[in-house]
């Protein structure tokens, strides 16, 4: 997986014109490898995602048509789409972030903001939360303009008395780590308690990271839990190769 700086440079190279950015929200698609996937194209009611000639095509946006509605974000299995509104205020931009964890933040909450590498970049305020039928939420956060192409994830946490950041919910069975395979934090912690010390062992026991997103969201969490349990740094732990998100397609589509 490419690091934050490399991804940021690729994203900046795809930005719409300054005139378009001054008009309102626009979608940015951070999907740079050819994979058989197209819900962004099929979900856009405005025809803003250009037609795919091949299921492996990379998505391209027609910014004259994109309204920044976020429909494509809610169905993207790779959580690879972000909507940026640079017109929000002079100091801050509004970013729509696809969010698939518990607890779901509320308007007014201050949440932790992270870059693509999982580094904390800022605490940010939640301005709007919208739930979709598939249980994906779009969380709007106000972000300093200089961070609008860095901040790409949030976490809802409260500070305990000893100053350590801890999840708000202690219902680990309800905290889903792997949405593709429906694996909870409780299952991950149970496997570690049973003696699993590598991602591969947890993967074989739970199927974590084997779903359509191929570990995009769950692998960093599993690595963090293993790091806490083993005392090894995340770099020392053996991490499997990241693969591209996948989505089942009908055989007929492949022969079209
Ligand atoms: S944000 Fe809305 S209009 Fe823009 S590409 Fe996505 S679905 Fe289409
Ligand atoms: S991963 Fe997301 S952005 Fe990429 S092709 Fe699939 S739906 Fe579109």
UniProtKB/TrEMBL annotation:
Pfam families from the UniProt entry: Fer2_BFD (PF04324), Fer4 (PF00037)
Name of the protein this chain belongs to: 4Fe-4S binding domain-containing protein
InterPro entries associated with the record: 4Fe4S_Fe-S-bd, 4Fe4S_Fe_S_CS, BFD-like_2Fe2S-bd_dom, BFD-like_2Fe2S-bd_dom_sf
Gene3D superfamilies named among the record's database cross-references: 3.30.70.20, BFD-like [2Fe-2S]-binding domain
Keywords: Iron, Iron-sulfur, Metal-binding
Gene Ontology molecular function, alphabetical: iron-sulfur cluster binding; metal ion binding
Organism: Dethiosulfatibacter aminovorans DSM 17477
Lineage: Bacteria, Bacillati, Bacillota, Tissierellia, Dethiosulfatibacter
Start and end residues of each 4Fe-4S ferredoxin-type domain: 57-86
